[in-house]
Amino acid sequence: MSWNENYQIWKQQQDLQPELRDALREMKGDEEALKNAFEAPMSFGTAGMRGTMGPGIGQMNIYTVGAATEGLARFMDEHLSATEKKRGVAVGFDSRYLSREFAHHVAKVLGAHDIPSFVFDDIRPTPELSFAVRHLHTFAGVMITASHNPKQYNGFKLYGEDGGQMPPEASDKITEYVRSVTDLFSVRPASEPFLRQTNLMHIIGEDVDEPYLENVATVTINHKLVEEVGSKMKLVYTPLHGTGRVIGQRALLNAGFNEFKMVAAQAIADPEFPTVAFPNPEFSAAFDMAIELGKQEKADLLIATDPDADRLGAAVRQPDGEYQLMTGNQIASVLFEYILDAHQQAGDLPKDGMAVKSLVSTELATKIAENYGVEMIDVLTGFKYIAEQIKLAEERHDKTFLFGFEESYGYLIKPFVRDKDAIQSTVLLAEVAASFKAQGLTLYDGIQKLYEKYGYFTEKTLSQEYDGVEGKNIMKKIMVKVHAEHPSEFAGVKVQAVDDYDTQVQTSADGSETPLTLPKANVMKYWLTDGTWIAVRPSGTEPKIKLYIGTNGKDQADAEAKLADYETSLNDWIAKIEKTI
To answer: Per its record, what are the GO molecular function terms (predicted)?
Structure first.
């Protein structure tokens, strides 16, 4: 159907939610907005779905959430035994507009199929939802969140019974059922009082918080260090108006970090995110208020978690009193080195140890792994692939998981959660900062020591935005061109090999081909003769094409100069492609 036909169907719905009906009236005459809302349904894939909130088949609303849940319910009806189905679904939600309403609607649609739900009583971090799936032994989990996106967004994330986001093979089956729900208004939810009275909807909270926090407590490695140094170390924590305030402060206090301060204004769970344009710890502006408080307190470390508390960013106080932000790759590297060194010092470093990172994350971590005799496994972008490797290792009993991370500020210390976990990471990063403080150093000194030991690595992620339905079409055309073209050089440095994850083939400069073992994906990665790598992929959650550069040099200045040259070359190449579309 055309966008106008879809629009007319929505206009004619007699019992349409009043707020959505009002929004429809406001959109009248705005053809671009109407096309974006009604031309194409929300894509539902391995990451679930995410988009702006509003009326229409292409936006997040009670009807698109209901259709996604209906698809999950139909899958469970047809593929599970009665016993398996009764395991139910855990449901969490963040501090965004409509998150609570969407979460309860998920429970009501599941309940109409006699599928039990276990819904948190209030906002909770995404990693705690992952934990809840495992702790309660549910068949699946749903998290209502748009993570670090701006306030206009919300999302529906689907988790499997291992607590990880479902990998492609499993999620593709459910996706077929979701896409079969073509009439959004045919989904009929059950009433919440009926579900509560018939034990088809359960409210969870502290009964999950306590075991989750007990597991988080096991992340601490050196309790004596925390007691002697960490307990007196000053740090600032901000949850950026999100879910971290519920659990993050309890985790820090439980670990023994008694001198931390929260940014009061940002400890309010406010869906407007009034103090930040983008509630994303990757952006320096997200630290403005933390830096202000940090200077007042002379805090050694500032930590920010995004609204669903799966990502963590940090800034470190320098000798001049100013704060230096650390990248996700730097944070991961100091955490990883600390973990492996602690195991080695204790004499219990597993011989079958493994770590997992996304293929667009720093090669510094690979060097660290090699130094300790630990296997580093590269996977596609998406923490579900890291969770998948943990599950495989457990099933085969052939590897011991030690650490996992993505460059986009996501880390996992211990696998009682199967997604990136900023609560675990907050506690361990504070301990690592205490360790350096005991040596008269800072976390930033720590990353410099790693560079001296392993080489000077630097990375950068660039984003090209393409909004609206037309933007999606442009992105597709650009990626077609990217796959078709094989540049022979960037910034005057020869390309040594090209990894095309769509064809699953690596092509060397001499024309020889080698199969790639990772799953099929819309990703290109270029290996240069100087050890630099460059990658291009469309974001799975935002209207962006992401460009990655990882390089190294004889010292920091050399590495950063090379990075600047590659950034210019890469931007010029993408701009040239755009002109041909």
So the answer is: magnesium ion binding; phosphoglucomutase activity; phosphopentomutase activity
